[in-house]
Amino acid sequence: MKTLKKSVLAMMLALAAGTASADIAIGVTVSATGPGAALGAPQRTTAELFPDSLAGHKIQWILLDDATDPTQASRNVSKFLTQDKVDAVIGSSTTANTAAIVDAVVEARTPLMALAPIDLPAEKSRWVFRMPQNNRVMGEALVEHMKANGVKRLGIIGFADVYGDLWLQAIEPLLKEAGIELVASERFNRTDTSVMGQTIKIITSRPDAVLVVGGGTPAALPHVTLNERGYRGQIYQTHGAPSDAFLKVGGRNVEQGIFVAGPLLVWDQLPDGAATKDTIRQYVERYEGRFGKGTVSSFGGHMWDAWALLEDAIPRALKAAEPGTEAFRVALRDALETAREVVGVHGVYTMSPTDHFGHDRRSRVLIQVRDGKFELLSTASH
């Protein structure tokens, strides 16, 4: 009788194990420290707001810091894929770090929610979905403003890395179409403490305006140096730069600077009826309720949008396969690619086989620094 009872109990346990929902594992690597911390730190804290279950499945979040080091980002993702067997990866904060992890996720056939606006060939792009806006979409808004305000000659100083390369590739054709001459193009490193030589060369070329192509607080260095060297033309920045940390580092030297950005930073200045306003309000209330008033960052918003897309896609992927399998990862990839009108805090996402950014004009605004704050200059979208 005891043997029979043990057999029945074993069968019950086996049946229970067979019907239990498998956990969904998601690996997150961000630059919470290092030169990219202005981007990665709010992304990490945003991830702390995410739920621990969805559609009847527990979610296992594995959060790691890559310290703005591409090599460490690669190590983190290798761990996710080989040890943790994740179903998706989110990261990283900088373009260089993101570029360093692409090959691994593609080889493992695992969806990557990229937090940097990286461009890729079609075979790699298939597994990579980008949260930040496409550089061309954002560059169009900057060039339109330049042209409308009589800019004929432009100087550029940008990061000497993938981020700088991709922005140049995106904006040079736009400048040509607008009849704006690129008269100087200089580079600098994220860790540089001086860009005096580069800024002197740019000023000597006598541009009507200068575009700084950088991200986080390092993007403030050329802006400050140009101002201190007496440059009085308009200075523009990309969507990699604007944050409260940038304003603190730049101080009065970044006043009147014009930035292209997602709508999050100036959400309360958006017109009523703007596509993203209500969603942004919900994010801001949750984030500031946890971390304090005024702590929201544009970069944390990219992490929030990564979850918005996964939250939309995961239930659809679960209809095809169980988590922890290649079939589920493929189904998740397919579900992400068919996302339609998913409202985030940086725009409304509609993905397709040829567009893994998913943004339109609703994803951008132009903002200007006035009295130490970002003010809405133009919706450029809404």
What is the gist of this entry?
This protein is an alpha/beta fold and 382 residues long.
Description of the molecule:
- Helices cover 43% and strands 19% of the residues.
- By secondary structure, it is α/β, with parallel strands linked by helices.
- It has 2 domains: 7-133 and 281-361, Response regulator (Rossmann fold), CATH 3.40.50; 135-261, 3-Layer(aba) Sandwich (Rossmann fold), CATH 3.40.50.2300.
- It has a 7-stranded mixed beta sheet with strand order 8-7-9-10-11-14-15, sandwiched between helices. A 6-stranded mixed beta sheet has the order 2-3-1-4-5-6, with helices on both faces.
- It starts with a helix and ends with a strand.
- 51% of the residues are buried.
- The model is unreliable at 1-19 (pLDDT under 50).
